[in-house]
User: Fold these one by one.
Assistant:
Number 1:
Amino acid sequence: MSIEVRKIDADEFEAWDALITTTFGYDPRREDLEFFRNRNELDRAYAAYDGGEMVGTAGVISYQMTLPGGAVLPAAGITAVTVKSTHRRRGVLTAMMRAQHADAVGRREPLAALWASESAIYPRFGYGIATEAADLTIDRRHTAMEFPAGTNGRVRLLTLDEAKATLPALYERSTDGVPGTLLRSDPREWDAYFYDPENWRDGASAARFAVFERDGEPRGYVRYRQKPDWEDNHPNHRVRVGELHAVDAEAYAALFRYVFSIDLVTSVEIFNRRLDEPLVWMLAEPRRLRKRVYDQIWLKTLDVAEALASRRYAVDGGLVVEVVDDFDDAGGRFLLEGGPDGARCVPTGRAPDLTLAVADLSAALLGRARFGQLAWVGRVIGDHEAVRRAQAMFSWPVEPWCTVHF
């Protein structure tokens, strides 16, 4: 069997979209088709063909990702990956990944990122878990907060047009410097954010938006839904918080207080939050906040030297790192010298202090994976001093986090 991988033509987009929706178990809708056509980049949409039959899909959304220290690098956002069940284990996905990575390298994108539908798929292509998140649930009866309520601000609901005008600048301010953040600089990202068809709501309301303002200045916002439910004529409603960002603790607490005070609600569900969620330190009963942790961004470092030179490091130090990449040509031996004020990373012939797979380097790039743990389980090879130095350098005080799903 000969598989051909190429970019699709404009008149193939509907078939491309239909294969994606069918594989993920959805029925294609005309309205959603136009939405996806607008969000996807046609010149980065690939398909695999067996003869004339489309048997696989893969797309890329062009992003900018924040690294520790605030630098921003281009990142290929891998998305819409499918293979027909009739063509499993025939090298279809491998061929598409090679094409996408080669295209990203040609565009000088040092990183490739994705959300994995299954965690067994992508390590063989060099991807490691770079960010994690948690879904939180709390009974409204246990939402009392010990953080003092501010007196100079207010929360108010926004119309959709007001939200479109207010949220982009607030998102940029509140996520500035957070490793793993994807910039929403392309207007298509905000079009996707505000797209809210009824069939995507799982029985809940349309998205609602509220903003916290102090002295007339927006300081944070929340996007949420209400899901009504009645049991024996008593309200058992749920609030589902999809996103909450704030530039300071007062705004953050005020927005959660607002969510916790919505009428008829018995439970609050809070999705896609950082692992070190500040709410834990504000609740009077923090144990009542139930948490489910999962992986978010899987990252592949396509240009090791540029990625390592672009981020900042917690302490000054130097390492020779040997990176093994069995899929692409991203591996090699690199001399890294870096600290809080800058870094340089160049190929070298010197003996390595540490050896690790590119997937594990990618997992550590944003500060999530710890070199000590990776070494303990045999994923990093090196002496104790080199491992300790790497862990001290790569650690970062801000937990990596991403709230853009693609």
Note: The CA atoms of residues 6 and 46 lie 5 Å apart.
Number 2:
Amino acid sequence: MGFLRHIKQVLSPPKLTTRVVVREKPLHEQYQRIGGGLTPAQVSQIMQSADAGQPALMLDLWNESRQKDGHLQGIAYTRDIAVALCGLDFIELDDDTARRKDKKAIKLCRRIRDEFEDFDKLIEHLTGAYVPGHATAEIKWKKTKDGLLLPVGFEALSPRDFLFEQKRGKLRYARFPGDLEGVDLLAENPGRIIQIQRRITGDVQVREGLIRCLIWAAIFRNWSLKDWIALGEIGWKPWRIAKYKKGASQKDIDTLVEMLEKVGHLGVAAIPDTTELLVEWPKGMAPGTGGSSTHSALCEFMGREMSKAVLGQTTSAEPGPNGSRASDQVRDKVRTDIREKDAIAAAAVLLRQMFSLAVAVNVGDDVACPVPWFQTDESVDQLAFAQAVQALSGKSGAGVKLPAKWVRDEIGAPEPKEGEEVIGGEVEEPEPENDNGQSGKKPASKPEKEAA
């Protein structure tokens, strides 16, 4: 009861709409520009600073890498929204065991889900913890007209605003630039903060997440692309070679070089007849030869490494030239497994840090909060499923009896209510008519007493 009383005090007006710890940060504190021209040594220094508990620069480098690399943005966004696209519902108790308060609790949770502002964005923020290893948001509560105290919105807190304190390496919020210890937002603000910490790589918390793996792959792709573009400036242009006679003056040589530059840029130049001009294409790069580059192979390799780290496979992002449809489906199953694990982690933290508190405050602390779950099942091919059901249960099929509820659940169809207009179902065959035009169905026999 003491903890519940504390929760009610924290969430009650006027504290309901005031910040406790988190302050508005000016724009210059929200990010730092890393820019180009990085060397491997500089990237390593940024990683070492993150290992020492100050990951802000590493988060800035991650954001810039994602904004530069289309492939990285594509696969990261695919995983970010994967769980948010799944509907959230709550596990109901059987009607025989559910109490009135239990039904009230699940109704309350569904109301929170439906009325919560940008609920899908909250899910995206929480499931994005696979990159830095953690995600935090501030929950906004509001007193409703019917007297309930409900979470109605959130404000995402950037992972770069957090540090890892030196004594035990615990996650803390940095109150100001240069803060080395920070504060535990979740412990000091129960009900106001929702925070998730993931196990992705299995390392210590300060080194969790895929951020290091993805940054190095993105940096190598960026360096390769930069060299590739520079190569395109010289390597994919013909070599212009001019020969001058021995004893030519420096002025003649400079003039000759200027003419060669004009040939490269303008395609035209005037040279004296005493000069021999040669134009040669690099081997494999002449027009129509279909030349290739190791830069392309390196960029593709790093892209595949990113896909494996984020999605668990590569075929859903860029199908390869080899492999059958069956093998592609097996590899894509890895992606769905990752999505389900992300969904379980998000549902667990929503249960502990938001829905259970709302139920305790509004319904009672003696009521178990209904368990949230994401509908991550893949959609059923309804035509193929219908044909299978017909083959199993039809009169001309195997004659297997199937529960109608299971069939409806598989295709996502609700159970019809009593008196509701329906389509489908068994149709009674008409009875054959006799010679008098009447139905051949025999009338029901009268009871023995009535017959007597």
Note: The beta strands are 88-90, 134-143, 149-157, 162-164, 171-173, 193-197, 239-243, 276-280, 372-374.
Number 3:
Amino acid sequence: MAVEDRRAARHVAEFAAAYTGAVLDYVRALPADALDPVVDALAGAVAAGANSLYLFGNGGSHAIARHLDLALRRRFAGLRPLRINCAVDYHGNQWLAVSGGFDSIFEGILRSEGASGGDLGVLISGSGDSTNLLRAAAYCRANGVRTVSFAGFDGGRISRDGITDVPFVVRVHDQQISEDIVQVLLHAAAEATYRRFVGAAGSRSALPRYASRVAASLERLRPAFLERVGHSVCRAFLAGGAVYMLAPEGAPLSVSAEHTAHNLNWDAVFEVPHPPCRRLHSTPTHCDYSGIGNDRLAPGIVSCQQLDAARPGDVLVLYARDLASAPAQQVLASARSAGVTTFVVAGRSGRAETAGADVMVVGSDDPDVLADSSQIAGHILGRLVRMRLRQAVEPGCVIEDLTAYLVGGDLAQRRLIDVVPGL
């Protein structure tokens, strides 16, 4: 390995350690009762039975809302019926945006369902300044809907007195790190809510216990693997190739696949001059049982169909809880036939056929832990791709302190979806 390559590898490893350390250190430093108001609100909504939980966010915050939805449904399956809406009716939401404006989407959902007292709104915003969430909060306030909000940075407008009932601010001035902290906290809150509901002891210790499980998984992230993925994705973008982020088993990893595709389409080109076209394909928009594949009965069939269009030089990042599962194995076989460069993020590998694939196993069967570790890996990957793109499209671009560049700089920005309305 050349000296420059060794230097880059060292900085990538330092960056990954700094990033994951920032998430875990913040969570571990919180007091034991930090999540009590959040758990109180969730437990009240779950106990209410017929009332609804509205989990709303934009971009990465939308992915966090969907992870919370899945976590709650999994824990309370067969125990308590839940009515949850996290704005995943894409066709209806598109119409709300076209007819009433993007700022009206969440308010429109609340209004159409007649959200009222007994319901709960969980509003997630990286900056705390998303207008559509502020309008949702105003509707909730006017109609007796209890609200919890999560925001990063200084909390923004949504965290001001009287806007939501329980404002929780993650005081980290980095969009993606704050997102990851919020997701970890909400997974811990879901666990604490469940323990309280069934009368089990230790609801307050749910956060440190869960953080320990996440830490064990993050220790298995391999910076060299993420660097190889980043290099291949960047090369595909620059060559006009396609990148596939597929999770044929569904569940939280499917949301993480979509979230990472979102990062590569958005954050990876943030302030990159004249970025290349990104041809991205992600499972949730083409899965076996919804969208154009809603009559497909063979597991993994739509992911395989997507790969029918793949060509050598394209990149597949496959997310699999169990790499030996039939859907994952079918997708790997399709990838081999197409000649694409294949990377795998797996919870476990088992006795799987992985010929030709570059595999990273994070060593967990816990769906929430898999969601968090894969999302954090996706955020790290997005920054690595962005670094390589800048070096490729900006002649003479020299990054003197690679670690500092990856951890901070203009990457620690609010999303443009929050910034543009304020300009």
Note: The CA atoms of residues 5 and 11 lie 10 Å apart.
